Amino acid sequence: MFLQQFVNALALGSVYALFALGFTLIFGVLEVITLAHGAVFMIGAFAGLTVVTKFNVSPITAILVGMMVSGMLGWLIDLVAVRPLRKRKFHHLAPMIATIGCATIIINVAQGIFGAEVYRFPFDFMPAMSYNFWAIQLTLLQIIIVGVALSLMMMIIFLLNRTKWGKAVRAVAESPRTAALLGIPVERVFQITAFAASALGGAAGVLTGINFNAIHAFMGGPIMHRGIAVIILGGMGDIRGAVLGGLILGFAEIMSVAYLSSDFRDAISFGLLFVILLIRPAGIFGSNLERKG
Amino acid sequence: MIEFLMSFWQTYNTLFYTVLVHGMLALSIYITLACGQLSLGNAAFMGIGAYTAALFTMKLNVPFGIALLAGGMLPALIALIIGAPTLRLSGVYLAMATLGFGEVVRVAFLNMSITGGSVGLNGVPPKTELWHLFAAMGVLIYFFLKLKNSRFGRALEAIREDEVAAAVMGIKTTWFKVWAFAIGAFIAGLAGGLNAHFTYFLSPREYGFDFAVDILTFAILGGTGTFWGPLIGSTILTILPEMLRFIGSYRLALNGLILVLVVIYLPNGIITVKKKD
Q1: Is A182 a member of any domain?
Q2: Contact map slice: A 18-57 vs B, CB within 8 A
Q3: Within an 8 Å CB–CB cutoff, is residue A222 touching chain B?
Q4: Which of A3, A37, A82, B118 has its CA 20 to 30 A from that of A186?
Q5: What pTM does this model have?
């Protein structure tokens, strides 16, 4: 029983981690809390759904399309709403408010196009196969979710730590001015980061859409709240923190539903956020609270 | 002429109520923005105030004034609890915490039996008169006029301009920010209580994130340099949808567009304050 819950929690938590990773990456590099990340996530899910219903593609292709579309959208949000603010001195709340505006527009337009109804993937899209290991039952769906989420996260961590591009991103995250002086194309780093981080959000969107088989215009809201709790829990802008925080939240939710009551589920993330702000506001891995935020 | 005014009043008198309630909400978010903090929980505070005041008059039959006071006090108390750990930190933490808080409140309204669950509360006694709202607004305007040159108001301004510098000058920044947040919650709760007693009906769906964005848009459009800005912003945005009925279901997108455009092109909002140098 416990091991089975463990597997369920891993599937849920790895999607949260994937979402939060993009969220925290944008904060770490662009120093913007993009409250449009939930809307980007939702558009990714719709993009994946659309190619599946129109062209009957495989889950992996759907995820790739979702990533591309979300990435483009994230890049566009950066271009339209955040970049003009970057060009001048602004109050630190300004870009956040601009992304709230973007989220509102995107969600409202999606609602206009798709209506308020809940969409589902075709019945035979995901074969209902499952494998039994000892006492645990693993569904193909869970394997795909955990596999995709973990490999995307490992890929990002590899890119950040082992490549020249990653070094440039880390330099910009440390100090855009110094990075510019060293000849790093800061503006391009910002744009690539916005794209890549939003693409991760889109992947999380498609995975969530497949996992719960429910896609609608408001699906970005709940994960937005969870993403916020996760990045505060892990330490704002910290990659390892986002991954660990996502898994912790996934476990907390699954265990509370399994052993307490499902009524608490939506309150778990806020409870976690409140407790972490009380006892360790910098988060698990956070250290430089003063400079950022 | 008299007849025209009479028919105008009959058609639009509820709009006056709404303009005043929205004005109060705009002021409730203004006081946190005045010290550089963003609260996305004011719709939830309004909801808590509305439910509290309505339950006081419906179940306990207390005088209207006491019910309204209770509807303001409870959100203020909750704001103190949320604000104390959150506002020690700089910048964006309050926005993120209140965003999550708003969701918890919405879920609580939907699941608690005393709030009527997803059905909401029906049959709130009609007690709010237009003069109550004018009186409340008058008191608030007096409060904000006095605030400007008070110790409290100057502390808030100093915190907004440069929090570190303010702290160095000996201003207890966290203390002032927490009280500003609690006063904002009180105003939002009061507005909720007044609103509940003229709409007669409370639905848990009214106090979600969409409405928090509405309130934010009031303040941002009007500008947050002075408290007149949010009042003007809320008045425009309350009357505007009446005139722009054709945009229909795209009202929220209009809010979003206003937020983006104003933040980028009109960072001080419609009302700009001349800085004395």
Answers
A1: yes
A2: 33, 35
A3: yes
A4: A37
A5: 0.90
- pLDDT (tens digit per residue) in B130-160: 899 999 999 999 999 999 889 999 999 888 8
Q: Evaluate whether residue B123 is within a structural domain.
A: yes
- Indicate the number of domains in chain B: 1
Overall size of chain A counted in residues: 293
Does residue B213 lie in a domain region?
A: no
Structural domain contains residue A179: yes
Which structural domain range is residue B85 located in? 21-208
Return mean pLDDT, chain A: 89
Which residues does chain B have within 8 Å of residue A94's beta carbon, measured at their own beta carbons? 263, 267
Residue B243 lies in a domain: no
pLDDT in tens, B196-247: 998 888 988 889 888 999 899 999 998 888 899 899 999 988 888 777 767 7
Task: Tell me which chain A residues have a C-beta less than 8 angstroms from the C-beta of B89.
Answer: 277, 281, 289, 293
Q: A101 in contact with B at a CB cutoff of 8 Å? A: yes
Question: Considering the domain boundaries, does residue A292 fall inside one?
Answer: no
For residue B126, the model assigns a pLDDT of 87
pLDDT digits (tens, 9 = 90+) for A199-212: 999 999 999 999 88
Summary mean pLDDT of chain B = 88
CA atoms within 13 A on the CB side of A57: 16
Q: Give me the residue from A85, A107, A293 closest to B91, CB to CB.
A: A293
Instruction: Specify the pLDDT at position B277.
Output: 41
Q: At what angle do helices A239-259 and A2-30 cross, to 10 degrees?
A: 150
CATH number for the domain harbouring residue A106: 1.10.3470
Is there a contact between B82 and A224 if contact means CB atoms under 8 Å apart? no
Measured between alpha carbons, how far is A95 from A59 in angstroms, rounded to an integer? 34
DSSP state of B60: I
Range of the domain at A217: 2-115+141-279
In a domain, B41, yes or no: yes
Task: Name the token pair of A215.
Answer: 């896609």
The residue among B30, B32, B81, B93 with the most chain A CBs within 10 A of its CB, best to mutate, is B93
With 0-12 / 13-18 / 19 or more C-beta atoms within 10 angstroms meaning exposed / middle / buried, residue A228 is buried
Top residue of B101, B264, B268 to mutate, by most chain A CBs within 10 Å, is B264
Q: Cβ contacts of residue A59 below 8 Å, gap of 6+?
A: A125, A126, A144, A210
